[in-house]
């Protein structure tokens, strides 16, 4: 192995400790409201972990669970009430929502200053315009992992694989904001390997294992793996062929233990930052 491991568990621990310290000094308790509609088992696990992380780091949290039959209007009314609640600084509605509920309408109903997922059109616009605002947690966490290498991104070539609204697109914009030259590849890209070979930084957010192989990676590159897939033995794996790429890359995130823990960490950071902003207003 030539690559240095970028340890998302260790970085999460450091950042979560800083959240707890800043929260304790704030003079108010940052509050997160988490809403789950329906009984998707994976969503239930994610939500439980988010609420637990709040409690462990000095944040207030409210968890609201509703039946899958909850009318859209009732959900919108709950969001309006949480928008007006001064004890709540962040609102997260777990996705996916039942089909009768328009997710875009729900996301748009969350006050922009409480949009700790950073999923709203206004939050996306703030990021695209280089304005301060709440950033989507997963790409924000990837930026922290990249920063932890100490490599200055100015003038470096970053290749993002994937163009989702939650990861790929915001990731590209954050890298651009950090003065990288950015290429976004996706399912219709003609020659993925050609682009990845140029990259000083690769962020893979595809959802298909072995998308990034050793032959595609420039020696010394930073490789960030957002993928969460299962291999034939049912073991968790990313989008990167870790076993081979670790011998070529300069830095690499493992799966599990890389990007995964950072998503909830950045949710805590966003909730804290949202609370800090209310004090500045
Ligand atoms: N479902 C899967 N990941 C997420 C996330 O980061 N936020 C929300 N709201 N729903 C999700």
Q: Would you give an account of this structure?
A:
- The chain has 281 residues and is of the alpha/beta class.
- It has two domains: 28-111, 3-Layer(aba) Sandwich (Rossmann fold), CATH 3.40.50.10860; 136-260, 3-Layer(aba) Sandwich (Rossmann fold), CATH 3.40.50.720.
- Helix content is 40%, strand content 16%.
- The chain is built from ten helices and eleven strands.
- A six-stranded parallel sheet has the order 1-11-8-7-5-6. A three-stranded parallel sheet has the order 3-2-4, sandwiched between helices. Strands 9-10 form a two-stranded antiparallel ribbon.
- α2 links the parallel β2 (31-37) and β3 (60-66).
- α2 (41-56) packs across α10.
- The longest helix is centred in the last third of the chain and has 21 residues, at 260-280.
- It is globular.
- The mean pLDDT is 97.
- It binds guanine (GUN).
- The site of guanine has 7 residues, from β4.
């Amino acid at each position: 192995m030539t690559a240095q491991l970028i340890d998302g568990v260790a970085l999460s621990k450091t950042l979560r400790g800083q959240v707890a310290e800043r929260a304790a000094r704030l003079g108010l308790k940052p509050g997160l409201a988490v809403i789950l509609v329906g009984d998707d088992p994976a969503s239930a696990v994610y939500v439980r972990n988010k609420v637990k992380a709040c409690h462990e780091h000095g944040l207030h949290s409210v968890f609201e669970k509703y039946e899958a039959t909850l009318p859209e209007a009732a959900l919108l009314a709950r969001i309006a009430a949480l928008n007006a609640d001064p004890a709540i600084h962040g609102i997260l509605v777990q996705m996916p929502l039942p089909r009768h509920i328009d997710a875009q309408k729900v996301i748009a109903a969350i006050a922009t200053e409480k949009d700790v997922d950073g999923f709203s059109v206004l939050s996306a616009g703030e990021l695209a315009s280089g304005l301060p605002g709440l950033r989507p947690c997963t790409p924000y966490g990837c930026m922290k992992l990249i920063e932890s290498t100490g490599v200055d991104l100015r003038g470096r070539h970053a290749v993002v694989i994937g163009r989702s609204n939650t990861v790929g697109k915001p990731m590209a914009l954050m890298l651009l904001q950090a003065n990288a030259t950015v290429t976004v590849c996706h399912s219709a890209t003609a020659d993925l390997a050609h682009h990845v070979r140029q990259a000083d930084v690769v962020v893979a957010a595809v959802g298909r294992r072995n998308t990034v192989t050793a032959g595609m990676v420039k020696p010394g590159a930073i490789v960030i793996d957002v993928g969460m897939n299962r291999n034939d033995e049912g073991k968790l794996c990313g989008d990167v062929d870790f076993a081979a790429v670790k011998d070529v890359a300069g830095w690499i995130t493992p799966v599990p233990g890389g990007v995964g823990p950072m998503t909830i960490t950045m949710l805590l950071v966003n909730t804290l930052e949202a609370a800090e902003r209310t004090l500045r207003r």
